[in-house]
Amino acid sequence: MRFLVGLSVLLVCMVGYFRYVSGWVETELLVAKVDSIDMGFVSPGVYEALFTLSNESGRKLKILHSVVSCDCLGCEISPKEIGHGQQVDVKCKWDARGLSGPSHTKIDVVYVDEVSGRVGTVELYINGNVEATVTVSPSHGSFTEGAPAALEFELIPASSIEHFKIVSAEVKHEGFAVSFPEVDGRRIRVDYSGAKIVSLSRSVLLGVKTSAKEFPSIEIPLFITRTPGGIQ
Fold first, then answer.
1. Residue 141 and residue 161 in one domain
2. Could you tell me which residues come within 8 angstroms of residue 36 by beta carbon, excluding any fewer than 6 positions away?
């Protein structure tokens, strides 16, 4: 009987040891103290965010690389090797220039347990709401199939934006023509021939490029209402 009890204890110890060596554990080895940072409402600009990761394993971990979900993110991680109980900083720069409205971005920090070879990932998030620095009036366009029409849009930049001018604009759909009625470069005229819209969404986009570094591109939705029975 004592032999069986002793054998059972030995087996439990061996399983625990191999789980330790192999890195087979229920929790993550590298843990973020805070995994999400909310910037709140901000003006277009470049902002910094700092995450701290802690090595909760009993072994040395090594940072392999990081993957960002947006070109607006850049990250620096130091140190690359983290001993048991040590921490690593993830310094991020979030470039909100050219963004408008809610923004949700993600950083994946990929690491490896050098003993077991186990690879893990820590997910970090930076969220924010970027105030619009260019107001579009009207905010969208409405047209009806079979009814030729024209609509003018005005782009009004915030006072902080200098040398604002529309560089180009286009609608990538047959039946639309774009022109610029004023020399100040802030108005766009969209002429619609009444052509049928095949898209199931019943909308197309007026894409605008500007000279402003803070707001280089804008998309204005154009909604097309289908006439009863469609165009014959």
1. yes
2. 124, 125, 126, 127
What CATH number did the domain enclosing 216 receive?
2.60.40.10
Identify the weakest region by mean pLDDT among 94-98, 143-147, 166-170.
Answer: 94-98
Domain limits for position 59: 26-130
Contacting residues for 149 by C-beta, under 8 A, at least 6 apart: 143, 191, 192, 194
Q: How many domains does the chain have?
A: 2
The per-residue pLDDT for range 89-120, each reduced to its tens digit, is 999 999 887 677 788 999 999 999 988 889 99
pLDDT class of 55 with cuts at 50, 70, 90: very high
Could you list the beta-strand ranges (E) of the chain.
30-32, 36-42, 46-55, 61-68, 73-78, 81-82, 87-95, 101-113, 119-130, 134-137, 141-144, 149-157, 166-171, 176-179, 187-192, 203-210, 217-225
Residues 30 and 126 reside in one and the same domain: yes
User: pTM for this structure?
Assistant: 0.53
Which residue among 130, 162, 188 closes a domain? Answer: 130
Q: What is the pLDDT at residue 198?
A: 64
Domain co-membership, 140 together with 171: yes
**Which amino acid belongs to residue 175?**
G
**CA trace torsion 117, 126, 159, 155 (10° rounding):** 90
First to last CA, the chain: 92
Q: Count of alpha carbons within 13 Å of 65, Cβ hemisphere only?
A: 2
